[in-house]
Specification:
The protein is an all-alpha fold. Helices cover 79% and strands 0% of the residues.
């Protein structure tokens, strides 16, 4: 009997290490931690809020309108210019523009999430709505700062991997604010109630703060340091007019914005109504937590890890198109779940499929948006792009509640697939006309030409 063993191939071992190495560099790791802090507020205001409201007896139509409380995410480009230019006294001089804003906004966000958790929507829906809007405003402002800072600290060769890490962190933040908050609050979990569930989730601001302390000042601070002091009209030009003029002078700017607006409409339409459907189908908190924790987490890892290789294999244009098709088709698993009703098997399949396809799609999409942001106006231009991307998620949420009531859950999820088609058609047109190029950095260069 042979006792020989086959040693691991050194070439294969080096290949695996070489594949992982770009993700483990300091700045991509910082991007991951920033993503955790960026991902939790919106999840509290979408899926988790919908789950909470469903549990306390709020109807689907009201939940749809409640998700409209995230409107600040669609308007953040309006105050992004001030984040780019306005200095916080003393703190900006000590830690730099981006980090000063981040630390102040995170402190306020921490407090607002605690207040939201204590607002008792079943008794004081108006108070709940107020703190939801405040949290949305602060969460959107944190996104302005984090998105700009992330783009500025990542060198060109680390942008795809840093963006993939950031999206992984973002989804971890989503997971913490989704299944984590529900596990803390539910009587089938820790049983601490919604107030402590939201309050403890607020500590997700810490990873982003630590990353900012570690990564240092961004490129924006170095650019500002070289510029002469501005006053009056020049400040107005550089702060408000300049970022928008520079973007809209690019070839195909309006078509690009339209694409950003409608690309994820189908995914956005379903996002806000998923948890109310799960509650209505009779899944227990224990089932929901277990499936999301076990299957959702690993689906998240796989999807986000595939994002950067996906772009390397296909190029940016093809990756956008293929990931868009995958996200659209993944919604059919929810059609099947709605047909089957209370089925742990189909909930598992649906959650896994959604996490993998969304992980790929978001990484590709955010890499594209990041490459379109001029480093001189990072906060404003990325806020403009991401605001347009958020419009569908916010304003389709209200009619989504009516659509789910009128069509039933199977018909509703079929509708989300149909709604996704125009974005794919427009992407094909943009791609054929050369507005979506293989390199995001070349996209910026061509847009500025």
């Amino acid at each position: 009997m042979s006792t020989d063993t086959v040693a691991p191939d050194p070439v294969e071992r080096r290949s695996v290490l070489a594949t992982l190495a770009p993700y483990l560099r300091p700045r991509p790791i910082a991007a991951l931690l920033l993503g955790i802090s960026s991902g939790f507020p919106l999840a509290l205001l979408l899926g988790t809020m919908g789950y909470w409201l469903s549990k306390v007896g709020i109807d689907k139509k009201t939940i749809g309108f409640a998700i409209g409380l995230t409107t600040p995410y669609t308007l953040k480009f309006l105050w992004a210019p001030f984040i780019d230019r306005f200095e916080i006294p003393v703190l900006t001089r000590l830690v730099g523009q981006r980090r000063a804003w981040l630390f102040v906004v995170q402190a306020l966000l921490f407090g607002s999430v605690w207040m939201l958790g204590f607002s008792a929507p079943q008794e004081h829906l108006g108070v709940f709505a107020f703190w939801a809007i405040v949290t949305a405003f602060l969460g959107a402002t944190q996104d302005i700062v984090i998105d700009a800072y992330r783009i500025e600290i990542l060198p060109e060769d680390e942008l795809p991997h840093g963006t993939a890490n950031n999206q992984f962190g973002y989804r971890l933040g989503n997971l913490a604010a989704g299944v984590g908050t529900i596990a803390i609050a539910s009587s089938e979990g820790l049983g601490l109630g919604w107030a402590l569930g939201y309050g403890l989730t607020a500590f997700c601001v810490i990873p982003g703060a630590l990353a900012a302390l570690w990564a240092g000042r961004g490129l924006h601070d170095r650019v500002l340091a070289k510029q002469p002091q501005e006053t009056g009209g020049r400040w107005l030009e550089d702060t408000i007019i300049g970022p928008f003029r520079e973007f809209f002078q690019r070839r195909g700017a309006v078509l690009i914005l339209l694409f950003v607006l409608i690309y994820k409409l189908g995914d956005a339409m379903g996002q806000g109504m998923l948890n109310p459907m799960i509650v209505e189908l009779g899944f227990s908190d224990t089932e929901f937590i277990a499936i999301n924790k076990l299957v959702g987490f690993w689906g998240l890892i796989v999807g986000t890890a595939l994002g950067a290789p996906f772009m390397a294999w296909l190029g940016l244009g093809r990756a956008l198109f293929v990931s868009g098709v995958l996200m659209m088709l993944s919604n059919f698993t929810f059609v099947i779940l709605a047909w089957h009703g209370h089925s742990n098997t189909w909930l598992t399949i649906a959650v896994a499929t959604e996490q993998v396809t969304s992980g790929i799609g978001l990484t590709v999409f955010v890499t594209y948006l990041s490459g379109l942001s001029n480093l001189a106006y990072t906060a404003t231009q990325f806020a403009l792009l991401s605001s347009f991307a958020a419009v569908g998620r916010t304003w389709l949420a209200a009619p989504a509640g009516y659509a789910a009531t009128a069509l039933g859950w199977p018909g509703f999820w079929m509708l989300t697939m149909v709604v996704a088609i125009p974005g794919l058609v427009l992407l094909w047109i943009l791609w054929r006309q050369g507005f979506v190029v293989e390199s995001v950095r070349r996209a910026r260069a061509e847009g500025s030409a």
